[in-house]
Amino acid sequence: MAQLPRRAVLRGAAVTAATTATAAVASPAEAGDRHAGGKEPTTKQPITTNIPRGQEKYFDPYYNVVRGQVPASYHPWVSNRQDRVLLYSRTAGPRHAHLGPALAAGLNPALTPAHVLQNAIVRWLGEVGVAVDWTEDVTQLPGIGSTYKAVIFGSTSRDTLWRHGTAVQPGSAVNTTTGAHLDAGKTALRQYVRAGGGFVGIHNAIGGTEYNWPYYEGLCGGTQYYDHGALQAGTVVTLAKDSSTAGLPARWEFKDEWYNWMPFPTRVKFLLGVDESTLATKSGTHPGHGAFHPISWCQYYDGGRSWVTALGHDSAAWTDGSGYPGQAFFKKHVVNGVLSAMGNLPFCG
């Protein structure tokens, strides 16, 4: 598997707006390798092979998909998508405080002020004309023919797509004869992405979600969260020009847990990184990533678009006017990232 060139070196004051802009411009050969395939198709194309015509070199045999910055692999199979997204925040393990208590079943259950992330995404996207439905009910995930432009996984955890307990009968062992489709959520998500759906993963969505499903790992950039250090201040470095980094300074302050990755993400466009030299402490186990520690990236994946960020641990980051360092930049990054995954802004270009 070819390794993408590093976009920038995160070294203190050496990274400026000028060097960031320069680093985002690859050599013609590198650019051709990453962006081959031209523009996204706008009409349905006959499917005669597992790999879109001309995209053989971008096929990833481990994840069994075409992935990378390959616009021609996008599948516009659903023509009536709406300016509406689905926010999914179910946790099957640890639950971040910004999610509040578990939500009731169904679509759009009642939210309280404790549901900080959900309220923020509904409000932030409403400000740019995008409607949001929300759920923690695995049966509500979009699938074949869905008109949602994107599905957002907000700090999900563990086996979030498993319909737990369905096949368990009171007073008896697990019923192995049931016809219950316990992993229907996985089927729905995969079919949704393959039909040209947009996927957005925020914070713990790439930090402890669906550890044992390779397709999901690939959707998140061929990587998984390994561990993190303390919640602490650090300097974010803007690595590339993109719809989701427009208006962000070359360097800006933020507070987060600064996830470490294993394996390291591949075949993606790196958008943001953290300057490790600005962190007071690090994980006691993982050595970190040295001069290049990415925290946001995007890619085309199996016919759909995928945009992810590890940022967003603290509830104050989701609260306008909180005074949290970099909160306005974080909001801009998330909103524009969602809009790009929807196709409302140019994606991962």
From TrEMBL:
The keyword Transport does not apply. InterPro entries: Class_I_gatase-like, TAT_signal, ThuA-like. Residues 84-321 form the ThuA-like domain. The keyword Signal applies. Residues 24-51 are annotated as: Disordered. It comes from Actinoplanes awajinensis subsp. mycoplanecinus. Coiled coil: none annotated. Residues 1-23 form the signal peptide. This is ThuA-like domain-containing protein. It comes from the Bacteria. SUPFAM superfamilies: Class I glutamine amidotransferase-like. PANTHER family: GALACTOSE-BINDING DOMAIN-LIKE SUPERFAMILY PROTEIN, SECRETED GLYCOSYL HYDROLASE.
